[in-house]
Each structure stands twice: as structure tokens, then as C-alpha cells.
Amino acid sequence: MKNGFDDNFLWGGAIACSQADGGFLEGGKGISTQDLRYLDPAWNHEQVEEKHHNSPFSKAEFDQALKDMDTTYYPNRRGIDFYHHYKEDIALFKEMGFKCFRTSISWARIFPQGDELEPNEDGLKFYDEMFDELLKNGIQPVITLSHFEMPYGLVKKYGGWRNRKLIDCFVRFAKVCFERYQHQVKYWMTFNEINNQANYKADVAVFTNSGILFEEGEDREAIVYQAALYELIASAKAVKIAHEINPDLQVGCMIGMNGVYPASPKPEDVMNALGAMHQKYWYVEVHARGHYPRHILKKFERKGYDFITEEDKKILAEGKVDYIGFSYYMSFATKYQGRNEKTFDYVPEDFVRNTYLKASDWGWQIDPIGLRISCVDLYDRYRKPLFIVENGLGAKDTVEADGSINDDYRIDYLREHIRQMYKAIKEDGVELMGYTTWAPIDLLSNSTNQMSKRYGFIYVDVDDYGNGTYKRSKKKSYDWYKEVIATNGSSILDD
Fold first, then answer.
1. CA distance 461 to 476
2. Pick from 45, 389, 53: which is nearest to 206 by CA?
3. Is residue 78 part of a domain?
4. pLDDT in tens, 4-36
5. Long-range pairs, 290-293, Cβ under 8 A, ≥24
6. Which residue range forms the structural domain that includes residue 455?
7. Taking a C-beta distance cutoff of 8 angstroms, is the pair 316, 286 a contact?
8. E strand map for 105-175
9. Among the options 149, 231, 285, 390, which is catalytic?
10. Which of 464, 466, 468 is closest to 48 using CA atoms?
11. Residue 1: what pLDDT?
12. What is each CA distance from 245 to 104, 122, 236, 241, in whole angstroms?
């Protein structure tokens, strides 16, 4: 008899509203943070990378963006127009055999400014209809409340998540969603890749996570830790409310889980890797166990940070998540270079290339076994069900003269990762709920705002600057993934 995943395993794919939906300002939608990210047609690859990874984000830049309601230089306002194409796209997902589909609810579509007392009914109706379409096609929605997007009004008025007032705004948004969609959506997540902002030096990480714009001379690290506290409190409150509304609702967290190896067996390199992993894990610790780990509290003590109240601790303890969702794309290696010699705190500058691994077109190191390691490590630590909600390969796809797209590189990547997650279940005893690839259909890359970094089984005919027909077409990987799902993985486990 062939091996395979359990019959109840949730196969599917994942997107995010800000990278796919479009529908800019339609149906009463407000301006979101992602609507203000600029991409200049004149920029080359290096300039794009510089803008999104090294250049500071500024209020002046966004004030200028608010004066321009065009979509030309603001790709997130266009996405792939999922807002108007979702029925067509869901039909393609059904044909692939999807059991679930992960997307996010645009906070700015429900509460245009973020702090209104009453939601936007037109926005709520859009998700009513989209979720109904999924269920009609036998696909379970898996929904993230905050996926790198929030109303810009909350940034302008309150400074984003640096302000404790956002807790109430988020909880109001979450409660409206839970009450409205409790009979359509069973699986929820609060914040997407909440731990990305551990790299507090990267404006793109902090802004997309928390809507924070830094001023000159501010203690970035302190601000990010404080913002994370408010987000974790908001998440805990949301979990508790969801369970009160409907005990059948399953609410998880979501972290970016790219493992960090020591560059050598040298003890200092091992400590460096441990420090880096501490920065990934502590967010999960709070979500899953309801309290801060002692190593973070010791760090706060060293730095003089004192912003966690007794009431905060009580709230965190009462709102533990039901499962752990995570993304996995690659792994890193780190080498001790003399920084933080006593504490071995996380420093991104210590990352080095792992010479044992190949890399994607964008330099992301490909490490299928690392996915198994991540599954085992997370499950051993927290003993909660896991859900791999992002895994995929961004690549430059070529449309052949006959219209075919032969993305064997994507098939190779996904095959090896699926095999490793199967080993994690069958050999290591990991409890894994499901697997949603990023992404089933081409969409904007969050890291660069480009369409040319493609992930999907479905090709969307649009370039980085919105030129194209938006026509959907199947890549070679489409039928391959269809067979994987149809056989519960056995088609690739016995070769």
C-alpha cells in the first residue's frame, strides 16, 4: 500500500489581501499601509532592493503618496485584481483539489480609518460572498486578521502599534469578523509573521508588521518590543473573544520560521545561532504558553525596559492560541564575529552564506530538510498542532511560444519540502494540520513589490507596472500539485 498523508490533511494555497486583491478604494475601502508603497518604473533590480531593504520609510514619502490616487506607481493598489477575479480563481483552486485556502481580511476594508465604532457593511459583504464561494466549492477558508496591512489612519493618528490604543481598535475588528463569519470560517490567525520585526533595523519589516515610522535618534529596539507587546495582548484578547463567541473556532498565531544554523561547531557560532533562534521563538512562547520566556525578560532587565504590567501578564495567560501557523522558505547560517560577546544577541550582520545549499534567483537558500527540523523543533517545544501556511519558490517564469510555462524548478522545490514534512509526521510524530503553498497564483512580492518574482501554479499576465491582460493560465506545476492532492501525497512519496 502506498504511503500518504491522512485523509483530513488540509492541502491548499495562501495569498494576502494587500498583495492580491486590488479593488483600491472600492466598496468603501480605506487607505492601507501597503497602498502607499512606491515602485518606480525606472528603477533597476539593485535600486528596487535598495528601496525596500535599506532605505528608510518616511511620513513625507507617504504624505506624497496620499496626494496621488493613481495606481501606476503603487502596485499594491492593483495586486492581481483578486477582488474582481476571485470566482474565477477559486474555480481553478477547486480544480486543483484544494481542501483549504488561506487569505487575509483587509482591516482597511472593514474599518477604513481603523478606529471607527461601526464597520463598513460593503466590506463585510465582500467577504461574505467570497467565503461562500469557497465553501460552495468545498474549500475551507483559513483567515489571517492582520497580514502586513493596516489602515493608514491608525499610523497617522496614533503612530501605529507603538500606541497601546491600537489594542482596542484591533480587538473591535477581530470581534466583528468572528461574529460575522463564525459559521463560514473555522480557522483563524491573528498576526502574520509577527516575529519579522525582530530585525528592527529594517524599516520594511517594522512598517509592514506594525505601521511604525521611526524618528531620528529613537531607540528602535525598545519601540519594537513595546509594539510587539501590544500586538500580543491584542492577539490574546482576540483568541479569548473568539472562543467565547464560538468554541469551535480555532485561532492560531503565525511566525516566520526560517531556521538558523551555526556556521561551524565552534561554540561561539553555536551561541550566535541560539541567540538568533531566541528572537524567532519568543513570540511563539507568548502566543502558545501565555508568558514571556525568561531570556527575553533578562534582556529587558539589561536594557532597562519596563513596560509589561501585571494586567498584561494576566491577559496573555488567558489567550493562548490553539495551533501554531508558520511560514518556511529557507534557512540561514550565522558566524560569531565579535559582536555581543557576553549576550550573543541576534545581529543580522552575522548571517553568512551556507555553502552546502543552493539558492533561488533572489538569493534565498533552499533547504528542504530545514523544514523538517523546524517542524520537529516547534512541536517538541510547544506540543501544539502545527500548520505550514506558507512555503514556496519565487522565480522568474518564462512563457513559451505555445503559452506553456515549464516551472520544473518549482516542482522540484515543493516536492522535496513536502517529502520532508511527511517525514516529520511519520517518523518524528509531529502533529501537522495542513500545508498551504505560497502562493497558488502569482501575486506581488511583499519584499520587493514586484510581480516578476512569481510563486504560483497559475500565471497572471501582468508585469511589475500593471501592464497586461490579467489573464490566468496554468503552469506545469498546476497539474503536478493537483495530482499530489488527489493522491494525498503518495504520487511523490514512492519515487
1. 16
2. 53
3. yes
4. 899 999 999 999 999 999 999 999 999 999 999
5. 290/236, 290/316, 290/317, 290/318, 290/319, 290/320, 291/316, 291/317, 292/316
6. 10-493
7. yes
8. 140-146
9. 390
10. 464
11. 35
12. 20, 23, 14, 6
Q: Span 438-444, mean pLDDT?
A: 95
| 384 contacts: CB under 8 Å, gap ≥ 6 | 288, 321, 322, 323, 324, 431
User: Cα(17)–Cα(25) distance, rounded to whole angstroms?
Assistant: 13
Q: Is the dihedral of CA 17, 19, 20, 23 positive or negative?
A: positive
Task: Based on the residue annotation, tell me whether 193 is a catalytic residue of this protein.
Answer: yes
What are the residues whose beta carbons fall under 8 Å from the beta carbon of 129, sequence distance 6 or more? none
> Which long-range contacts (C-beta less than 8 Å, at least 24 apart) are formed by 280-284?
280/195, 280/198, 280/255, 280/256, 281/381, 282/195, 283/194, 283/195, 283/198, 283/228, 283/232, 283/253, 283/255, 284/195, 284/253, 284/255, 284/324, 284/378, 284/381, 284/382
310-342 per-position pLDDT tens digit = 999 999 999 999 999 999 999 999 999 988 777
First-residue to last-residue Cα distance in the chain:
14
Active site residue 341: no
Average of pLDDT values for 397-415?
Answer: 96
Give the total number of structural domains in the chain.
Answer: 1
Residue in 193, 218, 268, 311 annotated catalytic: 193
Residues linked to residue 261 through DSSP beta bridges, in sequence order: 333
Domain harbouring 371, CATH code = 3.20.20.80
Give φ, ψ of 365 to 5 degrees: -75, 130
Sole residue written with cell 477581530 = 174
Q: Which element (helix H / strand E) includes 389? A: strand 386-390
Question: What is the C-alpha separation between 389 and 15, in angstroms, rounded?
Answer: 10
Q: Evaluate whether 161 touches 231 at the Cβ level (below 8 Å).
A: yes
pLDDT in tens, 22-75: 999 999 999 999 999 888 877 877 777 777 666 677 888 888 889 988 888 899
In terms of Cβ atoms closer than 10 Å to its own Cβ (0-12, 13-18, 19+), residue 455 is: buried
Q: Please identify which residue in the block is written with the cell numbers 470566482.
A: 87
HSE at residue 296, side-chain half, CA atoms within 13 A, is 24
In a 13 Å sphere around the CA of 293, the CA atoms on its Cβ side amount to 15
Is residue 214 helix, strand or coil? coil
Q: How many residues does the chain have?
A: 495
Residue 317 lies in a domain: yes
How far is 261 from 332, CA to CA, in rounded Å?
Answer: 6
Instruction: Answer whether residue 26 is part of any domain.
Output: yes
C-alpha dihedral sign at 266, 272, 275, 281:
negative
Contact yes or no for 271/338 (Cβ under 8 A): no
Contact 371, 433 (CB under 8 A): no
* 466 occurs within a structural domain: yes
Cell 529557507 locates to 330
pLDDT digits (tens, 9 = 90+) for 127-174: 999 999 999 999 999 999 999 999 999 999 999 999 999 999 999 999
In sequence order, which residues have a C-beta less than 8 Å from that of residue 297 and are 6 or more positions away? Answer: none
